[in-house]
Write a structure and sequence with these properties.
Chain lengths: 301, 301
Amino acid sequence: MVREQVTYEDGVVYEFTPDLEAIATVEPGTKLTIETQDSLNGTIHTEADVIESIPSQVNAATGPIAVEGAEPGDVLRVEIEEIRLTEEQGRVVTIGGFGLLDGDGGIEAPRTRLLSVEDDALAFGDLDIPVEPVIGTIGVATEADAYTTLVPHDHGGNLDTTDMTAGSVAYFPVFQEGGLLAMGDCKAAMADGEMCGTGAEIATEIDVTLEVVSAPEPGLERPLVETADAWKTIASAETLQEACRLANRDASELLAAEHGWDLTDAYMLSSLVGGLEISQVVDPLVTARNAVPKAYLEEPV
Amino acid sequence: MVREQVTYEDGVVYEFTPDLEAIATVEPGTKLTIETQDSLNGTIHTEADVIESIPSQVNAATGPIAVEGAEPGDVLRVEIEEIRLTEEQGRVVTIGGFGLLDGDGGIEAPRTRLLSVEDDALAFGDLDIPVEPVIGTIGVATEADAYTTLVPHDHGGNLDTTDMTAGSVAYFPVFQEGGLLAMGDCKAAMADGEMCGTGAEIATEIDVTLEVVSAPEPGLERPLVETADAWKTIASAETLQEACRLANRDASELLAAEHGWDLTDAYMLSSLVGGLEISQVVDPLVTARNAVPKAYLEEPV
């Protein structure tokens, strides 16, 4: 099968809305390569290039891509097969007014550090950091409101979740016909939390296969990701506590449905295995996830 | 060397204060076995035994144990060698007014589920959960204020951190002469987050070796734990965001000190490797940690 190619030159969005216009329409089962620009739109080439404040347009998301037959109530299944870096350096930056320690004594913003890529590692001073690419922004057309690509919500968007990596399968609720998937803002490496506001921002090519899961029961209200050994619900909210509550509620509902338990028993199990994880603590809404090992949750969608 | 034994019958505390009185005093290098009661003081024997609301005394912490020569500014090093369960069942409970989903539709509190232990696994319905014991409450005499054993803070206390397990080494700031260590509230298994408010609460025997690190630079303001592959700063605060901020600040300072970097470079590295983790989201203060893989931080204390 020929792998179709969609590049940021075909189109990007800076906002996820209910009425995105597809730049490509594909059949379920299609294998695609999606080219993404770095989150800062190729503006940072040297350490003298700094970002004084958040630009009005960041995290260009290549797309949207419609999948034929995807209807509200369905789930879009995105198998992430490979993420290849397409530049020889990444960049980590601090930006004024942004980041977990913003305003703390001793923290300088803006600052830019370039990280050259060699032999699958990033150079940071004399340390080598293994390349482990992550898709920072990935999502679908929203149900009702508009969210810029700086903001994560139930449609996905700027989830900054390390599990959005090769080998994982991401699932999104379909809110609009075709689903309308877009992605970008990749990192060559990123910590859980993305504390300084960025990972090693870099341009990539992403190989995915897109499928539609028809009206599963229970459905999804928010993104879900399948890793090698766990299912993880993902939720974004004003506070980490609320993001945790939503992710735990979603995980408990999936456990209850699969095992035929009531919600309280599912919640009690959720308190014993796997657990809550942090995606990012820096975006206008913050993101947490609830991992349930596959030993306890086999096939939630 | 004979291993000394300290049991909850020798003494427990329900509050960490600046002026704890030692029930035992040991030399640095002492190997101890510490016996702990379950967090609910042996009151739950059947599923009909439920906890309507948080009792005034929970998480009995066996101790305090003074270590000779430990002075304010030092660090108490607690190597956790083994945690043995001393009963054949654990219990997970929901309690009115407590837990991440407390008050949500479909969540019943109080409820008690007993989990029998067999072949290193806990039975939950027809699921087997591997026994992976965790010390829920572990800490030292405080600097100034008093915290009940339900509350974690800079002295440790009710940290509910899954890394407090066999094979880890926990480090606490010494605020008072002797350090005055106490621990209890063990779980046979617990999820990161401890969402329903408990893990599988159970009585144990804990083998530890206690040492004193004399006035390290930089010192510790809060607990730190060393696992097989990472160093993790641990912080508790009113909100998860603030706990994350403190843990990230502490991790950045340890990185800066070891590498001779400024704080901003350390913060940028912290945003690329390891990352933020959740300990618990249910106690009156919540707890997060910042993991830094040992490849980037070798010997912070």
